[in-house]
Amino acid sequence: MLSAKDEATLINKPNNLLGNSHDRAMSTEVPESILSFYENNAHKINAKVVVVRTKKDEPTAALARNSGDKVLFLFGDKYWVTNYFSSTCQNILIPCALIKRSNS
Fold this sequence. Notes:
Layout: H1 4-19, E1 24-30, H2 32-40, E2 48-52, H3 58-65, E3 71-76, H4 83-86, E4 90-91, H5 96-103
Parallel strand pairs: 1-3, 1-4, 2-3
């Protein structure tokens, strides 16, 4: 279960990065519990939130990548991120301890 501090971290990290001249940010190997958190709290992120769980989500992600808008990409832990996305995004690392807590 996520604490209030964990939730603040998940919101503030991308907002701080995207507020400082970066247009695209991403997190990779994100567990399902955190993907769901971002889907439920997308309105708190200062960018469009795009969740990529499988290959079928790639067209939506590609459209967002090319839109010119600020975007936060969240790639699920079962998805292999291609260079098409990783080469254009600033990576946001989610702390391992936070991931462990989200999985319990």
